[in-house]
Design brief:
heterodimer; A: 142 residues; alpha+beta; Heat Shock Protein 90; 5-stranded antiparallel β-sheet; 5 helices; 5 strands; globular; B: 435 residues; alpha/beta; Alpha-Beta Plaits; 3-methyladenine DNA Glycosylase II, Chain A, domain 3; 3 domains; 4-stranded parallel β-sheet; 11 strands; 40% helix
Chain lengths: 142, 435
């Protein structure tokens, strides 16, 4: 099974560079030739995963793993961790500080958006250690 | 057989293979092979950047010549709004239009007039479609092409309203038919500031019906107009459009006419790319209307104009400030706006991916990254590609060789040279001592 893997570093609280990793991932998906809808869903998920690491996770690594049947994205950080994952998945719930909200972020839609755009989501977190979010978007040949 | 019509062409005789155009092309559509530039037809959007950049005048735009006029009995000129910016205030607009009649046209229909109708159509559309933001203007064909090639996911943001050029041609023909001319006798000719519009006439992106029969560039007709304009008295009252429509000729003109919501005007194709990348990321969601022009300054900055765009802008600004025409306002109230709406959708361009098969494409992607690591990363374009990544892509697609890279070639020569030197130092036993 042919697979392609690439990693991108995401810096904490760097809003100038924020979105660059997911932008490069989108270009990758376009070059490989996935369907437009799959590219859109994966790009939205990648962007939200990247922003979560910028805002909450103290930066981290965004990994993309491509296969002919699926696009896998993994966001791994060494941030504070998520105390209550179910609560975090609720639309509108956000732990973003006021200065971040002033920038227009922190609407509390990040994780719900990721879940909506993907076919599989897995969140593992440990307080004080870090969080790993892994998603899969199914791909089809056409 | 060529699948696309492009008005932008290469004059091989003049091309020196200097690689200047390669770097400016917004869709990386140019390569230099065998010492000459080559345009990849499925990527070219006829924006004219290469025409502007080429120091050897090797990039040209194919247009219709004035002798095409003789194919028609009743010839109508459709001057673009930017056309007015080419002449300074000592000539009235009536004189400018009359000069067109002296050149050989039987009638003239200002595209600026149609622009006022299109503005109303846009205002209507914006009011009725407030969900998807931002909505992007369809006026600039190079921008539409750019979105089809580089931003296919944004195609749904493009407003499905016809261009002022095509609307003007439609009205002009309808007018002529009502005066008794047969359809095949009537020819409409757009006086164009750019190659993008020339291509849009022959191959419209939305695949809609085109009412324009030919295009003549402003730079071609300018001299002819100046020749005739000095003999004119300016008796005929031909000019009808108001400032709102004329303003379409320069950047910011469209949004001036738009009534509802926040709007933004961007000019220059590299700036447009910048903004569209933001839109793709989900930014600019509060902007209702986005005016994008491929040329800096708007249409007055097109690659086929005659006058310096800054001077043209001064003139257009003067004309815009002359305000609206109440008679025109009344006329516009009664226009049927459903004519502006385009039915067909816009399709993304079929661009060559790494491979038709996803699994194969992934293998090639891996090879691409390996190849890229071996390249110097200088983006010098000596290989004829815009940057090292493009060369890596071409190598993997089988369109280029690693030794196309001057640095790789030199390295290989160095390795060979060292081998030769090593061999030269080895003395066969039968030859004895050597100094």
């Amino acid at each position: 099974m042919s697979k392609f893997e690439q990693e991108f570093t995401v810096a904490s609280l760097d809003f100038a560079a924020a979105g660059q990793a997911s932008s490069q991932i989108k270009k990758l998906l376009q070059l490989v030739g996935y369907q437009p809808l799959e590219i859109r869903r994966a790009s939205i998920a990648a962007y939200e995963m990247e922003m979560n690491m910028v805002i909450h996770g103290n930066g981290g690594i965004l990994r993309v793993n491509l296969g002919p049947a699926a696009i896998e994205l993994t966001a791994q950080d060494k941030g504070p961790g998520i105390p209550d994952i179910d609560l975090a998945m609720q639309e509108g719930y956000s732990t973003a500080p006021p200065n971040i909200r002033e920038m227009g972020f922190g609407a509390g839609m990040g994780l719900p958006n990721i879940k909506r755009c993907t076919d599989f989501i897995e969140i593992k977190s440990e307080i004080g250690k870090g969080t790993t979010v892994r998603v899969v978007i199914n791909a089809s040949q056409q | 057989m060529k699948q696309y019509f492009h008005s932008v062409r290469l004059d091989k005789e003049q091309c020196k293979g200097c690689t200047n155009c390669i770097k400016r092309c917004p869709t990386e559509a140019i390569r230099v092979r065998d010492g000459k530039a080559r345009i990849i037809e499925e990527l070219c959007v006829d924006c004219g950047e290469c025409i502007r950049t080429c120091p050897n005048h090797a990039k040209i735009a194919v247009e219709d010549f004035l002798d095409k006029l003789k194919d028609f009995k009743h010839k109508i000129a459709l001057p673009a709004p930017s056309f007015y910016g080419q002449f300074d205030s000592k000539h009235t607009l009536d004189e400018v239009l009359e000069a067109l009649l002296m050149i050989g046209f039987d009638d003239v229909f200002e595209v600026a007039l149609a622009a006022e109708v299109v503005t109303r159509g846009i205002n209507n559309y914006l009011q009725e479609n407030q969900n998807l933001k931002p909505l992007i203007s369809q006026a600039c064909p190079a921008v539409v092409g750019l979105i089809q090639v580089r931003f296919p996911l944004l195609l749904e943001h493009i407003i499905p309203i016809d261009s002022p050029m095509n609307m003007a041609a439609m009205y002009a023909k309808r007018n002529a038919l009502s005066r008794g001319y047969a359809p095949e006798e009537v020819g409409t000719f757009f006086i164009t500031p750019c190659p993008g519009k020339i291509t849009a006439i022959r191959q419209p992106a939305a695949k809609n019906h085109v009412y324009v029969d030919g295009a003549i560039s402003i730079s071609t007709i300018y001299g002819q107009v100046l020749k005739h304009i000095k003999d004119l008295k300016g008796n005929r009252k031909l000019q009808k459009a108001s400032g709102l429509g004329i303003g379409w000729g320069s950047s910011g003109g469209e949004i001036k006419a738009v009534k509802h919501g926040t709007k933004l005007a961007v000019d220059g194709i590299h700036n447009v790319i910048n903004v569209l990348e933001q839109v793709e990321k989900g930014e600019l969601r509060d902007i209702a209307y986005l005016e994008c022009q491929a040329c800096q300054g708007g249409c007055i900055g097109g690659s086929l104009v005659a006058k310096n765009p800054f001077l043209a802008r001064v003139r257009i600004d003067q004309l815009v400030n002359k305000g609206t025409n109440p008679q025109l306002e009344h006329l516009l109230e009664t226009v049927d706006l459903s004519h502006c709406l385009l039915k067909g959708g816009l399709q993304p361009r079929k661009v060559r991916n790494l491979d038709e098969n996803l699994a194969e494409a992934l293998v090639k992607m891996e090879k691409l990254e390996r190849t890229l690591e071996e390249l110097p990363g200088l983006d010098c374009s000596s290989c004829g590609c815009p940057n090292c990544r493009a060369l890596a892509e071409d190598i993997v697609k089988g369109l280029a060789l690693e030794t196309d890279c001057v640095f790789k070639l030199r390295k290989q020569v160095e390795i060979l040279a060292e081998e030769v030197l090593k061999l030269a130092r080895k003395v066969p036993p039968a030859m004895g001592q050597r100094n």
